[in-house]
Specification:
By secondary structure, the protein is mainly α. 62% of the residues lie in helices and 0% in strands. It is built from twelve helices and no strands. It has helices spanning 6-10, 27-41, 48-55, 59-62, 69-81, 92-109, 112-116, 125-136, 145-165, 171-185, 194-201, 211-230. Helix 9 (145-165) runs antiparallel to helix 12 (211-230). The longest helix is centred in the middle third of the chain and has 21 residues, at 145-165. It is flat.
Length: 233
């Protein structure tokens, strides 16, 4: 019997062995331990052998449930990204803001998800649910289907970009750390970079925390609002 594909595993088409003792492992346990390893030490350190040792089983035992690392990573991404948040009804701006903020938080919690959630790959039910949630927030705006999908791409890209910039960094200190570096360094080259020096000399130039996240979300939503208004909604 051929091994199940990543899509079959993601969508619950499981083909467990029918003979032998009752399995002591479950796909959920394997994936949860793999996520814990990747969160702690990075995806590059994750191997089927190391995962098996952590679980107290042989590597061959894992292959009864997950045929290889590629399929394991697909399951990890869908489990790590989780279900989308409950979104406010009848307020597309508030809904999309909450959607993007939560996606950023999930990327922050699982930085390895940033590197595996790109390119052509199998999409699981949780990831599909995120798209469904965002699309459900947009009917009545007058946006076309293509525009609604592109809106999701814009918000996802914003969450991904800031997630990549703040990997391993306390977000409350990220912008302030940059400002402190520039403040210490720029006076010696003020003639070369006068606009940058002036910008960082201004009080409140680097707010810290999630300032860049909120600013980017608001500007994306402002742009969408202009388009929605243009459509007469």
């Amino acid at each position: 019997m051929p091994a199940p594909t990543a899509l079959e595993l993601l969508w619950g088409v499981e083909r467990r062995p029918t003979r032998g003792p009752k399995p002591a492992l479950t796909p959920e346990l394997i994936v949860a331990e793999a996520i814990a390893l990747a969160d702690a030490d990075g995806l590059a350190t994750l191997s089927m052998q190391r995962l098996a040792e952590r679980l107290g089983f042989t590597k061959m035992s894992l292959y009864r449930y997950v045929p290889g690392k590629a399929e394991l990573v697909a399951l990890m991404l869908d489990a790590g990204i989780g279900a989308p948040p409950e979104l406010p009804a009848d307020d597309w701006r508030a809904a999309l803001r909450r959607w993007c903020e939560t996606l950023y938080e999930r990327f922050r919690a699982h930085p390895w998800a940033l590197e595996v959630s790109v390119g052509s790959r199998p999409v699981g039910p949780n990831e599909m649910a995120w798209m469904e949630a965002a699309l459900t927030a947009l009917p009545g705006t007058g946006l076309t289907t293509a525009e609604r999908l592109d809106s999701i791409v814009l918000l996802t890209g914003h969450a991904r970009s800031l997630g990549q910039q703040t990997v391993g960094v306390d977000p409350d200190r990220f912008e302030r750390d940059l400002a402190e570096q520039f403040t210490a360094m720029l006076p010696t080259v003020a003639e070369r970079y006068p606009a940058t020096v002036a910008a960082f000399a201004e009080e409140g130039a680097a707010a810290g925390g999630d300032g860049a996240l909120a600013f980017g979300i608001d500007r994306i939503l402002d742009g969408l609002a202009v388009l929605v208004e243009r459509r007469g909604h």
